Amino acid sequence: MAPIGTLHYLVTAAALFILGVIGVLTRRNVVIVLMSIELILNAVNLNLVAFSRLWGLNGQVFAIFVITDAAAEAAVGLGILIAFFRNKETVNVDEVDLLKW
Amino acid sequence: MLDYITSYLSSDTTPGQAGNVFWAFVYIMVVFGGISVAVMAMNWLERKALAHFQIRLGPMRVGPHGLLQPIADAIKLMTKEDIIPAEADKFVFWIAPLIILCASFAVYIVVPFGPTHAITDLNIGILFMLGVSSLSVLGVVMAGWASNSHYPLIGALRSSAQMVSYEVAMGMAVVSAVLMTSLHGLGPYGVGVGTSGTGTLSMIGIVQAQQEQHVWFLFKFFPLGFIAFGIFAIAMVAETNRAPFDLPEAESELTAGFHTEYSGLRWSLFMLGEYAAMIAVSSIAVTLWLGGWYRPFPNTLTGETWDLVFSLFPGLSFLALAAIAFVGVRRMPKHPYFRVQTIGLAGFGAVLGLIGLILFAPPMRDRVQDIFWFVAKVAGFMYLYIWYRATFPRYRFDQLMKVGWKVLLPIGIGVLILTAVLGVVL
Amino acid sequence: MQQVVQPGMQPVATTFFFYFLSGLTLVSGVFVITRKNPVHSALALIFGLLAQAGLYLMLYAPFVAGVQIILYAGGIMVLFLFVIMLVNIERSQKEEQFNKQWLVGLLAAIALGALFVVVYVKGKNLFPYRIAQPIENSNTQQIGVMLYGQYMFAFEIASLLLLVAIIGAVVMAKKRI
Fold it and tell me: Is the CB of B123 less than 8 angstroms away from the CB of C85?
């Protein structure tokens, strides 16, 4: 087989990204949507670290910042989920329609 | 093939660094077997020591002085019926003890028993250890969730909240110790030329930094190293859910917490994981603050004679254990009912004495030095765990969280800042 | 079996580990988006994150791998599992799992995938197999120097962001403000 180059990692990251996008667009459970967002962030991280092998350590530093960001966003997102669940007793995304026309 | 095996023996690195798969596998098997035996010995020691603290005798019947009790317990647990609660999630129920076990045992990849006696030496060693030991929180949460009943759920939530809180304090203490590896001066208040060295995260590097600075990090920048060690010592007891922080698994509170619904072999996996985690965090503490595998006073009491004196300790300790066994033989009742136990204890004492005599031989003396001092220090910590359990009353959960966040974390941050300031200024 | 990697020569272990780890990541991604039970999805995501840490190690990024295990698998996923336990999911497991517009979403994702394929096929030769920075040993030290030197401002902003997130999460989840 061909030696493992950067392209292999990029294709893996792209596949992971597409899986995350499918999860966000098609699932009804809010928790699983949030987990799909984590998948997307991980795909981006893999891309960054794969490129940092070619072009210096900046990619890895940015990947660390992305992980920190993901932690903050997961915390706030789950806080919103708990607040919403307390009002409506459901975790279905389709029920988030109070502001609909 | 044969020189693949023997070529490692002449190198001076760990098997992982040398890329030698065979020896790495041998080391892994030795460590795995050693930890399993240590867990069983710890089980026996805990019951006997707790009993003697409480002025009673502990297990005396199963073997001479209860020495075969852990084996009997293991057989009992293996032959018990495996009960899974009715509505429990079978896959998660099955995998939770495995996660705790794998997380606790994976830490041993980087634990250094000597300068070349580790499975490997990652250059992010301490980061790896902290990370993998934080994966056991996941196993606890899943065990409580999968049991589908109240007590395990509350126990799992409390236990994981406690573990996550004390991980932060542990991290602060660890960072202070890692900061000290970048200094160059000798002695407790090391004043050296050019103190802006490069620190290291690798476990073997941390121990060697202590050797180069001629001081255990326990005494570095006294009392800062001592306070950092104290924070880590308290946080590691809370991290492994042991007394006095064992509210999540105390019997009078929560009927055994997150492992209530587990029976037989699954429960013994939890116990194995808990004791293995105890030994793992104790080895972190020994590596970071207590000088790892170096004998006491390697730099103040130097020279051939002192080396010789300290190298006699392994043999002497085994001979002391054999002497205690023979004293026990003498005190056994002279009843024919006890004949088998007397012979068993005498045989055990003879085996210990034989090992002690073997360890007096010069080639064994040199090889076993590092491992002996490391294991002796970790054994001291294990005894401290048992002592804490016998002595301290249990913390209430809100007191526990208060100590973790409001006491240990500020002190940890303060120690970190002061260490950094002293490291730059001095 | 030496593990020193030179460009142009690769031991067999690298290929095996790459396919194994990336296969594990992708399979766990599929499990995340298709499981009915959120706890199973979280478990699959944990395995995916650990496999990704392995991929980072293969890319000679040990510090990022360590941070991934500590923060992502050991921190964020614990948070997810806590919330899954606190939120009563029983009823939602019996409901319909996928959206009304699942077909449109799937088609959009496939279009995105086609875009990726076109980009990577056309630009296949832009990514040569060379290694820019020295392999391991001082990775953590170099990242530390960069974080506290070149990216000091971003570092401080990230800590401020975490403070805001902590306060936000506490406020959102309180019963009475």
Answer: no
Q: How far is C137 from chain B (nearest CA, A)?
A: 6
A64: in domain: yes
Partner residue facing B138 (CB), from C65, C77, C137: C77
Torsion from C-alpha of B55, B56, B59, B60, nearest 10 degrees = 110
| Positions in chain C whose pLDDT score sits under 50 | 1-9
Which residues, at least 6 apart from C140, have a Cβ–Cβ distance to it below 8 Å?
Answer: B123, B124, B127, B201, C62, C63
Residue type, C139: N
Structure tokens at B289: 């603050």
Question: Tens digits of per-residue pLDDT, A15-64?
Answer: 999 999 999 999 988 899 999 999 999 999 999 999 988 888 899 999 99
C86 with A16: Cβ contact below 8 A: no
Q: Give the CATH class of C9-88.
A: mainly alpha
**Domain range for A85:** 30-92
The span from the CA of B216 to the CA of B111, in Å, is 18
The domain tally of chain A equals 1
Each domain of chain B, given as residue ranges in start order, spans: 85-312+360-425
A chain contacts of residue C132, beta-carbon cutoff 8 Å: 53-56
Say if the ipTM goes beyond 0.85.
Answer: yes
- Whether chain B has a CB inside 8 Å of the CB on C146: the answer is no
Instruction: Please indicate, yes or no, if residue A16 is contained in any of the structural domains.
Output: no
> Distance between CA B158 and CA B238 in Å, rounded?
12
- Taking the Cβ of residue C88 and every Cβ of chain B, the question of whether any pair is shorter than 8 Å is answered with no
User: Residue C2: what pLDDT?
Assistant: 35
Q: Which residue of A has its CA nearest to C81?
A: A31
Ramachandran sector of residue B61 (left: φ over 0; alpha: ψ -120 to 50; beta: rest): alpha
Does residue A54 form part of some domain?
Answer: yes
- Per-residue pLDDT at C5: 42
Each domain of chain C, given as residue ranges in start order, spans: 9-88, 138-177
Chains B and A: 3 or more CB pairs within 8 Å of each other: no
Chain C CB within 8 Å of residue B321 CB: no
Residue A20 lies inside a defined structural domain of this protein: no
Contacts of residue B382, Cβ cutoff 8 Å, sequence gap at least 6: B42, B45, B278, B279, B282
| Mean pLDDT, rounded, for B147-162 | 84
Closest-CA residue to B148 (of B93, B222, B215): B93
pLDDT in tens, B158-207: 888 899 999 999 999 999 999 888 887 777 777 665 555 678 888 888 99
